[in-house]
Amino acid sequence: MEKQTKSNKRLKTAKELQKVVTEYYHQCTAAKVEGKPVGWMPPMNGAIEIFYAMDLQPVFPENWSPVCAAFGLTPQNFEVSEQMGYSRDLCGYLRNIIGYVNGLMNDKESPFGGLPEPDILLSPGGGCVPVMKIFQAIEKRFPDAKVFFADLPQVPVEDIREHHVAYAICEMRRLIGFLTEVTGHRLDEEKLKNTVALSDRACELWDEIMTFRRYKPVPFSAAEMGIMFVMVTLQGTQTAVDFLTKVRDEVRGKADSGMGVIENEKLRLFWDNIPLWYNMGLFNYFEKFGGVVVAETYSAAWSLRMDPNDPIRSLAMKSLTSYPLVSCVSISKRKEMVLKACRDYAIDGVIFHRNKSCVPITLGQMEIKRELEYQLGIPSVIIDADHMDDRNFSVAQFQTRADAFMEMLLNKKMNS
Amino acid sequence: MTPDSVFPFKEAIRTSEERLSALSESGKKIIGYFCTYTPVEIIHATGLIPVRITGGYGNTDKAYQHVPDFICPYMKRALEKALDGRYDYISGLIQGYTCDAACGMVNIWKDALKLDWVHSIPIPYNDTPESSDYFKAVLDELVQNLSAFGGDFSDSALNGSLNLYHRIRKIQYTLYQQRYQGKSNFTASDLMTIMDAGDVVPPEDYLCLLEDLSKRLPNHRRNQHHRFPVPVLVSGSLIERPEVMDMIESSGGRIVADDLCNGLRQIFPTDGKGETPMDRLIHRTLNRFPCPSRSRATDRGRRLLDILTQSRAKGIIFLIQKFCTPHLADIPILSELLKAKGYPAIVIEMDESWKMEGQVKTRLEGFFEMLGEDRN
Q: Which residue among A184, B113, B240, B286 is least packed, with the fewest CB closer than 10 Å?
């Protein structure tokens, strides 16, 4: 099999996404030039909206890693971090971004002009261990940045109690006070409400977009997962809402007119775990068997609602309920999510990406695999890989497993 | 150290499964835990027996039916033992979120072993009045759940448990201080065995063993493996094979201090301060000698430098479980910081087979030779 290096884009709005991505990174670098405070933070929490509402520029180093993968920069970044002593057994996001900030960061040829240096760091206590260690290394790299030592209860969603929420709210308020003190920007309550309303609208649109994936044939596949870029970096902005509205309209149009990703959709697949950012075209490999990856782990990642009239609590809840997708994961919740997706999207087979770079999502996959078979009779296959480091991915091994799996699914389908 | 002194601790470990099973069959509830941030005093104060889950070494065939290979040996081996029925005596499991592997593994234990009672403790990372208040609410929830599970809790019982564990840690810490001062009668592996027994023996019984040992301390003489051993500090994860410490000491080193999960980190500080028993517990937990999963490498580096100075160690051995993210991620920053202060470091990773003695010994000998030359 030839390595699939390019994803088959089928949504017109995918081109629009490239524009959104470019503008976002230009906005980040422009902020630095204009003297607008730039803050680096982990994704999937309620601090994004606070930053936008306070007219501060959020930057997401973790999200920069897929960009590096897409531009083929990860080998250079890995070389730098490995020379610094970071083990190859560590998460690829960690090795990539630490390599980047200590290497290519000052290279003027970086994609989109590179990342602007941080004035503020939101260094998390909570989330997965690699994300905490990423920020601790970034603190060392940028000693002049003002650091907010954040804290968030690491509690599975079903175990969240009022004292966890109260502490998360307390931390949100402490963050606002810190940002006011170090930047001089004050938080306008009305602006925060508007930001949270936009964030809520983006979540609503996200869910609406996902509902069209129930259609047969499915109007778009996991190869278009890049649309989540706006959920990670631009939540709480009109840009995200406008973009998602266009995606929704296009997807709805395709669904209504019966226009699928492929002409003869035979098998509907679910992808568990983070994609291979250096090989997004892999999702298209299944097409020769009439297979489409219809849904993935991220499908339900933003299925939450926020109340603009209670913005701080909403953002605290967002932080508490978003993180457990990738840390303090509960298997029962993950099972529930995967099984629900399989039912909702009429899935025929599941691909488990056993991801060397993500322990939290990978641990528990075998239990989910058994439950899928037991409860729904859905077969699955395990693919050994890594979301950042292609040295941990064997194309030949993938092909052998994927081919056998798809042939089995086709036989099962024919005999059912 | 004479074998007789450590023998009771070795025996206590060797017979622990049998004795804990008997306790369980007699109606006692035993609560397992992975991480030493678990508030064992609360479990004990509720009338239950806290026991640390251990992995040891050996095969992991059954565990691989549930987990990938890139999980630390401790977690894989512990699961293997559980799947072999060797933890059938536990009634419940507690985890304090220390690392992603521990969190995920608790889920798997719950699922694969059909455990009725599993509790997570989301410990705060900050030490502020707000985080203390929050942590108190977290511990109150634990008390409620443990009480509902079958134990009676009271502040006076907690006070008694805190006192008991304080007495234990004080004796343990005395042994560590003697080692700092070069007055220790124990090899590092003997000291580790003494410590490890505390994880699997009910605290009252363990205290008796320690007190008995204390009475006989002055009569012992330590056997040196080398004539001029190089003093070193060992920093790392849970070490489940004390023989590894012997290997270090037979390769030219003398372990004078440690920063290990089943070493200093577990016992220091020996107690906390506060008006109420719960405050005392919270204060100790939030001021623990930090695990890398709950702290910054730069902060740990400063503390390690203090220990290096106090113990007069000449270098540092990072002895870690393979795939241990918190440790692996800290090592580059720590190594740079320590090197700048004149302390060389070496990293030794261990897998579940522990079958890399030859290679490790060669590396250690080279390391000690280099340190010895520096000293000369």
A: A184
Query: Which residue in the block uniquely carries the two structure tokens 């840690």?
Result: B169
Q: What is the Cα gyration radius of chain B?
A: 20
Residues of A in contact with B134 (CB under 8 A): 153, 163, 166-167, 170
Could you tell me how far CA B245 lies from the centroid of its own chain? Answer: 14
**Minimal Cα distance from A87: which residue of B?**
B328
Choose, out of A141, A163, A332, A352, the residue to mutate when testing the contact with B (most B CBs < 10 Å): A163
Model ipTM over 0.90: yes
Largest CA-CA distance found in chain B, in angstroms, rounded: 63
Residues facing B236 on adjacent strands: B260, B319
User: Do A294 and A355 have their domain in common?
Assistant: yes
Whether B108 and B66 have beta carbons less than 8 Å apart is answered as yes
- Please state, in angstroms and rounded to a whole number, the distance separating the CA atoms of residues B44 and B168: 14
Residues A52 and A183 in one domain: yes
Burial class (CB in 10 A: 0-12, 13-18, 19+), B204: exposed
The answer to whether residues B70 and B100 touch, using CB atoms and an 8 Å cutoff, is no
Partnered with residue B14 across adjacent β-strands are none
Asked if residue A388 and residue A300 are part of one domain, the reply reads: yes
Is residue A1 assigned to a domain?
A: no
**Residues 6 or more apart in contact with residue B133 via CB below 8 angstroms:** none
- Euclidean distance between CA atoms B60 and B63, whole angstroms: 5
Apex CA B266: angle with CA B263 and CA B267, to 5°? 95
What are the helix and strand counts (H, E) for chain B? 15, 8
Check whether residue A86 and residue A143 sit in a common domain.
Answer: yes
Domain containing A115 equals 13-191
Note whether B93 and B32 are within 8 A (CB): yes
Residues 6+ apart with CB under 8 A from B22: none
Least CB-CB distance to B103: which of A136, A166, A329?
A329
Q: Do B101 and A87 lie within an 8 Å CB cutoff?
A: no
CATH architecture designation of domain B9-155: 3-Layer(aba) Sandwich (3.40)
Tally of residues, chain B:
376
CA distance B323 to A90: 7
Crossing angle (nearest 10°) for helices B73-83 and B100-112: 10
Q: What is the pLDDT along chain B (376 residues), one digit of tens a residue?
A: 455 889 999 999 999 999 999 999 999 999 999 999 999 999 999 999 999 999 998 999 999 999 999 999 999 999 999 999 999 999 999 988 789 999 899 989 998 888 989 999 999 999 999 999 999 999 999 999 999 988 899 999 999 999 999 999 999 999 998 888 888 888 999 999 999 999 999 999 999 999 999 988 755 555 555 667 999 999 999 999 898 999 999 999 999 999 999 999 999 999 999 999 999 999 999 999 999 999 999 999 999 999 999 999 999 999 999 999 999 999 999 999 999 999 999 999 998 877 667 888 999 999 999 998 755 4
- Torsion angle of the four alpha carbons B184, B186, B188, B192, in this order, in degrees rounded to the nearest 10: -110
Contact between B232 and B314 under an 8 Å Cβ cutoff? The reply is yes
3-class SS of residue B93 = strand
State the amino acid at position A73 in one-letter form: L
CB contact under 8 A, B137 and A163: yes
- Which DSSP string corresponds to A311-324? HHHHHHHHHHHHGG
Among A342, A35, A381, which Cα is nearest to A185's? Answer: A35
Quick one: closest CA in B to A90, which residue? B325
Q: Answer yes or no: is A2 within a domain.
A: no
Structural domains counted in chain A: 2
Tell me the chain A residues in contact with residue B66 when contact means C-beta distances shorter than 8 Å.
Answer: 366-367
Kindly state whether B107 is in contact with chain A, defined as any CB-CB distance less than 8 angstroms. Answer: yes
- Measured between CA atoms, how close is A135 to chain B, in angstroms? 10
Token output for A193: 């409400």
- d(Cα B89, Cα B19) in Å, to the nearest integer? 10
